Amino acid sequence: MADLQLDGPLALAFAAALILGAAIGSIFCYLAVKDRMRREYKLLLREWRMQEEKRIRSQALNRSRAVLKGKIGEQMAPLLPEFRYNPADARFIGSPVDYVIFDGYSEALQGQGRIERIVLLDVKTGRAKLSPVERKVEEAVASGRVAWETLELG
Hints:
Layout: H1 9-76, E1 90-92, E2 99-103, H2 105-109, E3 117-121, H3 132-142
Antiparallel strand pairs: 1-2, 2-3
């Protein structure tokens, strides 16, 4: 085999062809990698969305169950052993407190005894806390800002 000597214009053309080939190869590699990465990220995004949607639905379902348990607990409270008052003395109002209890009402209605006190009762289940409005009602009662009024309609 004869040695091939590249010099002058032929060497320049060969170098240009090498550079052009490397550039075209790099562009094709870049496009292939970019396309593959785009597909992989779309797949990862789709998986993440499905997981997040599942997590969000689960959280919403748990919250809904907790609210439902709370509502049932509020309604059933007078029937539970923890309820210290005569259920016939309790009136459910639901908001901003759950019950107004006229302690002794049943006996007073029969002419025996009197209404000992009026209690505003809120029922909580699980880890539920008083809402800001419920706290304000509690503060108003604790500070004695409670009154009786009669509205007479003509």
